[in-house]
């Protein structure tokens, strides 16, 4: 296993242009594949997750051509596949690929086995499968009930009403919604309990509208979708990734002359832009304009916040707690437990290595920073966000070793190179 040593760093400063959003990129690829016409996707993220989606679509005979930094997808004008073939699709650990594809592949014909790595087989898919079955889909589990791998027999979706829980992941609802316009009849989706991560659903609804579908909803609890077809918008621009931006924005809040992040502006459709509110609540100075965000340090202090709507960026808030005065409590983040790893347990363990006092609850994390951070070797659990989050620890005048830094390939393959470019002194060393 490769390791990366980040030497102590007193400040980061400068400008960075973000890669495309993972969430938007994989939605764009699938919607373009379902649409009538060709779609030219600009600033598509090139990462492990998007490569897995592209590979699966190519297996399903969707034509995808890349030239001059533009990815052109020839749409199917309906279901992705309507033949008699059988396909085995390996989606690795890409939740933004396996779940939407599972829903989309019920629409046509053919047989499909969707699987991934061992951790994917521990990530639940039952709420989505239950919802699809309520709409007439033929889906069965091949091993453990409620988890991948799943086998799908394409028979089309009848329409009707599906009731699914909303408290585990927004990806189940996103997947149902994106498939719903191609059902034979109107689709109604009712959410049981409170729907989490609403900003990610706002992305889904915005993009469906860009591709010609209209969804009516009542406060993200009741959805109605009419039958129709997706239509290519011609060109589609992928915004910079707001979740990836959080690490650089947080660095700007901790030390240095400030960091400006380009490719993300005040009018972004991504919910993780709400991380800026967290930065301001903790004492950082934030400037927003149409195409960039600038963050400068302030006197950081602890906060007590419900971060249910921004679970990915909430991890970065946990790192900021190391540099704040007083206690920080992050609440309503149970969804961390069903991500690439159990992030509540993983963050607790690794924060303690740095000297923090941590209380881990079922759905919250309470962090008291140490007077001085402790040098540490950080385990990443194969989770890209763990690796990127803990890079910030080197701003605490300590050396940090990141185990398996290559896991960032999932969403941001050159993250550590970009991080090093902003250092105002000694570069990172690899061992």
Structural description of this entry:
The protein is α/β, with parallel strands linked by helices and 431 residues long. It has 2 domains: 3-20 and 240-430, Alpha-beta prism (UDP-n-acetylglucosamine1-carboxyvinyl-transferase, Chain), CATH 3.65.10; 22-224 and 233-237, Enolpyruvate transferase domain (UDP-n-acetylglucosamine1-carboxyvinyl-transferase, Chain), CATH 3.65.10. 28% of the residues lie in helices and 24% in strands. The chain contains 12 helices and 24 strands. The strands form 6 sheets. A 4-stranded mixed beta sheet has the order 22-23-1-24, with no helix packed on it. A 4-stranded mixed beta sheet has the order 2-15-17-16, with helices on one face. A 4-stranded mixed beta sheet has the order 4-5-3-14. It is globular, with a radius of gyration of 21 Å.
């Amino acid at each position: 296993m490769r390791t990366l040593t980040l030497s102590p760093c007193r400040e980061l400063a400068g400008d960075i242009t973000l890669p495309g959003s993972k969430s938007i990129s994989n939605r764009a690829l699938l919607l373009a594949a379902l649409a009538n016409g060709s779609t030219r996707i600009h600033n598509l993220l090139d990462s492990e997750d998007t490569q897995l989606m592209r590979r699966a679509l190519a297996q399903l005979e969707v034509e995808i051509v890349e030239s001059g930094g533009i990815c052109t997808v020839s749409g199917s004008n309906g279901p992705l596949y309507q033949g008699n073939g059988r396909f085995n699709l390996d989606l690795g650990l890409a939740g933004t690929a396996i779940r939407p594809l599972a829903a989309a592949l019920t629409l046509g014909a053919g047989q499909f086995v969707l699987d991934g790595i061992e951790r994917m087989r521990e990530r639940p898919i039952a709420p989505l499968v239950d919802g699809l079955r309520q709409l007439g889909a033929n889906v069965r589990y091949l091993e453990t009930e409620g988890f991948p791998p799943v086998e799908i027999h394409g028979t089309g979706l009848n329409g009707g009403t599906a009731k699914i829980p909303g408290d585990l992941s927004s990806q189940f609802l996103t997947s149902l919604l994106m498939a719903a316009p191609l059902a034979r009849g109107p689709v109604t989706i009712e959410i049981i309990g409170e729907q989490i991560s609403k900003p990610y659903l706002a992305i889904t609804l915005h993009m469906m509208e860009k591709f010609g579908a209209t969804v009516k909803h009542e406060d993200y609890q009741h959805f109605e979708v009419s039958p129709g077809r997706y239509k290519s918008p011609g060109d589609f621009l992928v915004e910079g990734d707001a979740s990836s931006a959080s690490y650089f924005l947080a660095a700007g809040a901790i030390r240095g002359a400030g960091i400006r992040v380009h490719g993300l502006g005040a009018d972004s459709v991504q919910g993780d832009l709400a991380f800026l509110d967290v930065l301001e609540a903790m004492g950082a100075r934030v400037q927003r304009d149409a195409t960039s965000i600038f963050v400068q340090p302030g006197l950081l202090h602890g906060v007590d916040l419900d971060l249910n709507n921004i679970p990915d960026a909430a991890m970065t808030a946990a790192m900021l707690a190391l540099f704040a005065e007083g206690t920080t409590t992050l609440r309503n983040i149970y969804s961390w437990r069903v991500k690439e790893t159990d992030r509540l347990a993983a963050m607790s363990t690794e924060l303690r290595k740095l000297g923090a006092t941590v209380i881990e609850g079922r759905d919250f994390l309470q962090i008291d920073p140490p007077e001085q951070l402790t040098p540490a070797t950080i385990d990443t659990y194969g989770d890209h966000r763990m690796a990127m989050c803990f890079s910030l620890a080197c701003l605490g005048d300590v050396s940090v070793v990141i185990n398996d830094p290559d896991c960032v390939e999932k969403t941001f393959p050159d993250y550590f190179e970009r991080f090093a470019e902003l250092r105002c002194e000694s570069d990172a060393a690899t061992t």
